[in-house]
Amino acid sequence: MFATAPLRIVAVSAGLSQPSSTRLLADRLAAATRERLTAERDGDDREVEVRVIELRDLAVDIANHLVSGFPPAALREAIDAVTEADGLIAVTPVFTASYSGLFKSFFDLIDHTALTGKPVVIAATGGTARHSLVLEHALRPLFAYLRAVTVPTSVYAASEDWGSSGDEYTEGLPSRIRRAGGELASAVLGRTVSGASRALSLDDGADAVVPFEQQLADLRLD
Predict the structure, then answer these.
(1) H helices present in the chain, as ranges
(2) Between residues 144 and 222, which one has the greater pLDDT?
(3) What are phi and psi of 48, to 5 degrees?
């Protein structure tokens, strides 16, 4: 019998501290994706492999590659893992209203066609909810340039989101994580993740995808 390749989910975390809320968000998104993949394989007996790449451990290698053009073995292996993954989770802290330099430097090393058609969840962490639009004005355009397919739900976690279950007007962080993981799992399995052909689950809210213009209108500045 021929061995069946596993479903590979790779999460890239650009957190710098240890412990890191960015790494925690990457871990939870990966766990939600694995859970949904395991539940919805419908006879697909492939194993689900999850790997988290910590960019802080590769920072020196990334800098050396940028100036020399030759990636060390550990960095080359990380790049290969990202480009060969069935689904990608990309999480960055917000620095100066955008993704971190370490996050951008890593993806600068990936060929602009290597992620073509790959489903991606984009996510970010920050100290205040006012930075949440970084997902739309920075991360989504970056992965559009790389020709990846970002799932409809992106996840931003401000400091106050951790431990919060939301209220009558907003979803809590856990439900947003579950929904994003479910959308990535559906995309990996080749199913529709937006439009009328996808039935809403209990994890879906009526405002599952908020248009960028609406986010701008709803944004309240202190």
Answers:
(1) 21-39, 59-68, 73-84, 101-108, 134, 140-145, 173-188, 212-218
(2) 144
(3) -110, 120
Enter the pTM of the model: 0.82
Residue 113: is it exposed, middle or buried by C-beta count within 10 angstroms (0-12/13-18/19+)?
exposed
Per-residue buried b or exposed e for 198-215, using 16+ beta carbons within 10 Å of the residue's own CB? beeeebbbeebeeeeeee
Distances (CA, A) of 108 to 70, 79, 104, 137, 145: 14, 11, 6, 18, 11
DSSP letter (8 states) at residue 42: T
Mind listing the pLDDT tens digit for each residue in 3-18?
578 899 999 999 998 8
**Contact indicator for 67, 215 with CB cutoff of 8 Å:** no
Per-residue pLDDT, 216: 37
CA distance 158 to 119: 24
